[in-house]
Design brief:
Length: 355
């Protein structure tokens, strides 16, 4: 049988499911990975929908496609795809991409420390991967600079309930723009998996309110706005982590007049760019210094370890360079195909679980 698409994929997770496409993607124009990503975003979004929507995907799933690097110092390039956007950078995804490259032999693995660069849409990302017995047991990446345009700003958030009408938030860039709020402002919420529905409801309202009230602009990536939300709070196990968090990834646009859109998919990992954004906001508020260890725990108990290693500037913003350390696990290999008679060439979504 002849298929219209055949894509080779490796399935990974670090709590969060992260697909890596290793083959079958046609040529994508562009002189950098950023230009290649922009070409897909503006000219052909069908591949992202094919990979992430049903029947091949589901709301929490992220995807990465390996592409030839354009930067001379990069060993490989990758484009990140999520349910509503093409992020410039994603920490969990870069950990999974590095793991796949090493454990499949695309980049030859050696015992001990493996160092190389990857080209993301955001630019060059430095990788240090500790490998033992053919497994990448620890991946550290050096991210693009992070900064906080807003800290301790109060915004109005409708429909939360429980007498809460205003919320104090931070907004920071860690590879995406995050709006972040201390969960203690919502006393009925605990950062546990069983509270997922309420976490995503409140977080989606928070996201929409921040988008409406707090304009942002990255000097290098025009048009990128606040696209993701995070609730954070004190760790309940100080021996394991410093802060616990829940990041809600949008699965559609939020409409204050339509409660069915007050939903999203919870990040199952501690969120790499979210950890960078949290550290940037803490640095701006004097709560975290350079070279201090920051342990960030996700809903499933997975912990990322972060450091701020350097001060810099992004446009007019004071910024910091973060590193994040984590681990990812391969759980499957396969091919995704498109039957020529399949009418759903870009997949589909239904409002029972999709925003």
């Amino acid at each position: 049988m002849s298929f219209k698409r055949v894509l080779n994929v490796v399935e990974t997770h670090d709590g969060e499911p992260m697909r890596v496409v290793t083959g079958g993607v046609p040529h994508i124009p562009g002189n950098s990975v950023y230009e290649m990503e922009e070409y897909l975003r503006t000219h052909d979004d069908s591949l992202r929908k094919f990979l992430l929507r049903e029947p091949r995907g589901y709301p929490p799933l992220c995807c990465n496609i390996l592409v030839p690097p354009k930067h001379p110092d990069a060993a490989a390039g990758f484009i990140i795809m999520e349910q509503t956007e093409y992020p410039m950078m994603s920490g969990g995804n870069v950990i999974s991409v590095a793991t796949v490259l090493l454990e499949t032999g695309i980049i030859p693995m050696k015992e001990g420390m493996n160092e190389f660069n990857l080209e993301a849409p955001a630019g060059l990302i430095g990788i240090k991967a500790k490998c033992e017995n053919g497994k990448a047991t620890e991946v550290t990446f050096r991210n693009v600079p992070a900064f906080a345009p807003y800290v301790n700003v109060e915004i109005e958030v409708p429909h939360i309930g429980h007498g809460v009408e205003k919320v104090v938030v931070d907004v920071a860039w860690g590879g995406m723009f995050y709006v972040m709020a201390d969960v203690r402002q919502f006393p009925w919420i605990e950062l546990t998996p069983d509270m997922g529905r309420e976490i995503t409801r409140v977080s989606s309202l928070l996201l929409k309110a921040a988008q409406d009230q707090l304009p942002v602009a990255h000097p290098h990536y025009p048009g990128v706005g606040i696209s993701i939300s995070q609730l954070y709070g004190p760790s309940d196990n100080k021996e394991k982590s410093d802060v616990k968090n829940a990041v809600t990834v949008a699965s559609g646009k939020v409409d204050f007049d339509n409660p069915s859109t007050w939903i999203g998919a919870l990040d199952r990992c501690p969120c790499g760019t979210g950890t960078c954004a949290r550290m940037a906001a803490m640095y701006a508020k004097g709560e975290l210094g350079l070279n201090e260890t920051f342990r960030h725990e996700g809903l499933l108990g997975v912990v990322y370890k972060g450091h701020l290693v350097e001060k810099t500037k992004i446009g007019s913003y004071d910024a910091v360079v973060p590193t994040i350390t984590g681990e990812s696990w391969i759980y499957g290999y396969g091919n995704l195909v498109l039957d020529p008679t399949d009418p759903f060439t870009e997949g589909f979504t239904i409002g029972d679980i999709w925003g």
